[in-house]
Amino acid sequence: MHGMRLADDVSRAVPEPIAPMPIRPLSVLTALLHAYIALRLLPAAAGLTPAWPIGLLALVVSALTIPLPFLSRHAPRKKPLHAVLQWTGLLSMGWFSSLFVLTLVRDAGLLLTWIAQRVAGLAVPWDTLRPWSALAVFALATLVSLIGFVNARRTADVKHVDVPIRGLPAALKGFTIVQLSDIHVGPTIRNSYIQRIVDAVNRLGADAIAITGDLVDGTVPELREHIAPLAGLRARHGTFVVTGNHEYYAGAHAWIDELRRLGLQVLLNEHVVLQTRNVRGAQNDEETFESQLVLAGVTDYTAGHFDASHESDPQRALDDAPPLVHTRVLLAHQPRSAPKAAAAGFQLQLSGHTHGGQFFPWNLFVPMQQPFTAGLHRLQDMWIYVSRGTGYWGPPKRFGAPSEITLLTLMPARG
After folding, report:
1. Is residue 311 part of a domain?
2. Which pLDDT score is estimated for 11?
3. Pairing state between β 265-266 and 348-351
4. Residue 2 confidence (pLDDT) above 70
5. Rg, Å, the chain Cα set
6. CA distance 389 to 352
7. What is the secondary structure of 41-61 as a DSSP string?
8. What does the alpha-carbon distance between residue 138 and residue 125 come to, in Å, rounded to a whole number?
9. Position 404 in a domain
10. Are 269 and 359 found together in one domain?
11. Of 5, 107, 118, 374, which is most buried with the most CB atoms under 10 A?
12. What is residue 376's three-state secondary structure?
């Protein structure tokens, strides 16, 4: 295994900025939105069921607890109260998100119905429509949140993806890479969750393992014991990691040191050359080069905002790469790195960051920031695979965007 390190941690001693969470504006905003939901739903539901105060109580609890995960950052980490505050607030956040969206959908539907009534003279049973639609909003938000919770907390399924590479040497046919992405070890993702992922990955017997960023949501002292199972990952050529934007929020330099201490290889605008076959007795250099693969990694697309020496650069990651090794794979956290990666001559980019939207309706907004949301796509002569993520961020909730452990297999392209 051979590589060129091209990004020095020259500012290791400089503390990295962490964007402060504006707690007071957040609390005011969420309280106002909860009040809006209460005004739109509770009077209508009161006409249908005497149990409407349960909805009011749920809204009050939600409004009061959503800020708690941010406030509890200052609580002693070992106390059970800290975990309770984190879990309660994040569960409320997930439920409220669906409730708010569904309330807007209900209001839009009622408005369109009113317009249709005025224009076409339709007979609308408002006394039935208003209360039942309000009750349906509460029921659907709760059901979606329960299903989303189960989806988020289970161990991700293995998704098999064949990637057709033009001109792939015969020696690299069937080369496998397991991709993990966006695990977000933090308030609700802990040691046992990570151990289940490690066990599932090791059963696959991959040639290499790639972790494409956003591994953590917290500092090294907070999460060291929970990230520790990653030291047990096993693949023929090892485990390779690139930074995501959340690593920089949490202190990237300390995390880079910790991951290397665990035996993982962090690629910072650099590459390694993997010798995939035993070339002892090779007849010529071409036979040797055709059994090699360049695996490169870049820092997060936004890393330069945190540390100028970590400016993401796919071209720089190939400096001094053997020119006769044409099979080149890039690990880049954000899909936005793809245009520069294609221009640099990579055949495949592995990314994450989007979570596939994680749960509706946020998947509809991902294309506003990223060129690809999930799955395998083509950009010029390069493939890009975007993982929906192996964990989750924030609310323990996945709906319509299941988590995944991705097993990618390189195959020769036909035709």
Report:
1. yes
2. 34
3. unpaired
4. no
5. 25
6. 6
7. HHHHHHTT-TTHHHHHHHHHH
8. 21
9. yes
10. yes
11. 374
12. strand
Alpha carbons 323 and 357: distance in angstroms, whole number:
38
- Average pLDDT in the 102-109 region? 96
Residue 339 neighbours by CB distance under 10 Å: 14
Question: Do 381 and 305 have their domain in common?
Answer: yes
Same domain, 135 and 165: no
Angle of helix 80-120 versus helix 126-153 axis, rounded to 10:
140
Please indicate, yes or no, whether residues 141 and 187 belong to a single structural domain of this protein: no
Confidence of residue 287 (pLDDT cuts 50, 70, 90): low
The predicted-structure confidence for 291-315, as pLDDT tens digits, reads as follows: 899 999 999 999 999 999 999 999 9
165, two tokens:
């590479």
Over 70: is that where the pLDDT of 5 sits?
no
The tens digit of pLDDT for each residue in 371-411 reads 899 999 999 999 999 999 999 999 999 999 999 999 999 99
Range of the domain at 269: 155-412
State whether 217 and 278 are in the same domain: yes
| Separation in Å, CA 405 to CA 89, 183, 209 | 28, 10, 11
Is 246 found in the same domain as 112? Answer: no
How many separate domains does the chain show?
Answer: 2
C-alpha to C-alpha distance for 82 and 104, rounded to whole angstroms: 33
pTM: 0.88
94 with 221, same domain: the answer is: no
99, 155, 159 from 311: Cα distances, Å = 40, 34, 32
CA dist 143 and 312 (Å) reads: 41
Which of 126, 152, 178 represents a domain boundary (last residue)? 152
Residues 126 and 217 in one domain: no
pLDDT at residue 1, as a whole number: 41
Amino acid at 235: A
Give 3-state DSSP helix, strand, coil % of the chain, rounded to 5.
Answer: 45, 15, 35
Least confident segment among 73-82, 272-281, 381-390: 73-82
Identify the DSSP state of 185. Answer: B
Instruction: Note whether 386 and 354 are within 8 A (CB).
Output: yes
Among the three residues 122, 152, 182, which one is the final residue of a domain in this structure? 152
